[in-house]
Amino acid sequence: MFFTIYTLGRGQFLVSLILLPFLLNGFLSYANTQQPNEDIIMSGTVREIGSNYILLSDLSLHSGKATFDPSSTVKVLYNDENSNILLGGTQVGDVVFVHGILDQGQIRVMDYRHGIVNTRYVMPQKYEKVIGYHTTWSKDIPWSKDLRAGMKLKIRAGVDWITHLPQTLNIESWGAGRAGTPAYLSMSPSGSTGIFSLRAYLEAVVENVPAIGTVRFVLSREYSRNFSLNLGERSQINILDIPLGDVSATAVPDYVEAELEVGVTPNLGLTLSKISSDFSYIGFQEESQEFTTFEWERNKQMTLYFPFTNDGPGQVLGRFSGVLEADVGLSFYLKINLEVLGEDICCELIRTPSFIIGKLGSTILPFGELVVVEYQPYYRVRANFPDRLSHIMLNGKEVKLEEGGNLDVVLKNGEYTFQVPQYTYISPAERLKFTSWNSRYEGSETTTLKIVLDKDLHLEPTFTRQFYINISYPYNEVAGQVKGADWYDANQTVTFKVSNKMVELPNATRRVFIGWRGDVVSNSTEIELIISRPINVVSVWKTQYFITVSSSVGRVVGTGWYDAGSIVELKAEYSESNNRTRHVFVQWVGDIEGKDNPKKIVVDGPKKISAQWVTEYLLTVDTPYGKIYGSGWYPRNEAAVIKVAENYIDHGNGTARKFVGFAGDLSSNKLLEHVVMDRPKNVIAVWKTLYRVVVTSRFGETFIDGEQRFQKWYEAGAVSSIYLNTTGAPGRWIFTGWKGDYVGEEPTITIRVDGPKTVEAVWTEIKNPLQEGWVQPTIILVILAFIAAISIFIVKRRKLAAQLEPFRRKPRNIRG
Length: 816
Description:
It is built from 3 helices and 61 strands. It is mainly beta. It has 6 domains: 2-371, no CATH class; 378-460, Immunoglobulin-like (Sandwich); 467-543, no CATH class; 545-616; 618-690, no CATH class; 692-807, no CATH class.
């Protein structure tokens, strides 16, 4: 069973417990022309909470009469001397409900529960609520008038009236022991402080003042008085000080002005006493049950539960009331007003107690009743959720969980839908996954549980802790190769791997897996582990580029895959062919250029490089004698220069060589010649051999081939004709023949030049015939011999002349 207590904002109190605000006839007739004769129940939205006030707006009138504008904001004053003051709370519909107690700046939701058998229960030992009567009235009169030169005068005058008579209601309860032990609840009002305030104002505004703009004049006067109303004590409200007269002082210095003021103050006295309460006995069932006091529902309706049987809705559980008396009195005061050097100094000397001059009357003030307004079974629902979960959804509305993730609510019997999020995130890499409600209801494995509440329910939702394996990689192209990034249950054996160690791209680039770094360090493509925390690993890949090195001939080194940033050496090689043709490296062309071979490059991307060659042919130049130039390798179609050092070589032994020309793949008799290398070529220098023929004679003249000379060069195999003119010899010397490379007696000889030849004429000295004894015969023989020689000489000379005729036009010196 339960009882429902409705509460409104601070300074207004509605209890079903129904509060009947008391009527202060005399005081209200003075403070306000309104004389309410029925309950006034107001509520609104809390907009601001001050040190001793609360602002309510969006006002609603639930019963009774009041003179306020529903769109205005009401300032409700109260006494905050006590440590615990009940605050106005959240608006539901158009009612503001109380939901907590202010205790040292913190709002605490009242939630008191009865324990199980043999345990003590606790109810609030003291509960205070400010109640009372509050009214406001204001009047604002605007007026305006157009002036000269475009100026405009605006005047506003008005008055504000506020009265507030608060009263603190004390609710005390106690009870302890086993279930079934009586518990008691008593309510009584206590004293508080009220306020009466009157403010009048006058505001004048002149707009569009030349050279100034707007001039504003404001005059405001406020009159405010506080009063106390305590149990059994008379509280005095001083209405207005009325001066009765002044007495001027004469025996004071000139710079001091003094007046003595005597006055009277009418006042209103109020006395609240004879407080009484009548509450029925509240008992408990004999069986062990728990009960909750001031439990909050989703609609913020404060409910008082008692697990006992009564007569249902309408039952009056208790009443409380008091006697309010009012009287009118006067008090007198004496005040001195001083002005020293133009400075006002005022002080009150004495004020008499109030003299009661009449009673306004007394009335019984019924504070209200505690009644049962609704009767319906309630059940308790408890559950424990992870402390990271701040709320769940109950029938589509958010329900905040208590500290530690506990849910403990009391609900009416009926159908309810509980819903929790599928995942509760502790961090971006750690979460709790809902598993089951562990209940007998259908749909226990889903996040939404629908139940029919017909008894106390204890839900045991389970959650599985999950960790995320985060695998990052530097290249998007390898995303499909890295497997295993996902959420996994704690202590689960998981595998993450790289399915393909190499990923080739279309531009001669590829990514090559190196290993794992981060929380796991390994070079293996597949890792298996038991997950107990979030894992962050990096799949490390390197980039490789393909270097293409090509050549039309020969062999090149360097083609292949290389790591980005590495250094590779390019090399071109070629072996000479046996046909005296070869190819010579010239340079690298393509993405890399240069003439170095080998050449080192930095691999910063895919590259295509070609070796460029030139075809060369071998020119072989040979000579049997002397020096010849031009042998070597020459590029195709290049003109090679062939040259012999000299065209004549004298060996110094009577033998000489004379350059005739070039033979072989070149036919020329020039010492220097050019040959176009369009193929391998052989060139031979051709020489002819010359031999020297030397003729010596002591007497006479020597002729070689009809010319008087003593030596001559002949080509090998030539025939040399030699003639010796003996006529010039002394008388006693006669030519007797030749010696050396030719032996003979005739002065004219012919020899074949097949080598160096040297012939020498032999002369013999003739002795005196007288001395010899045979002069005469000798002379005759000599003469005959001479005649015969002359004849032979003439004949041979003619023959020789005929043979030498072709050579007579050549130079005399063969070297020429």
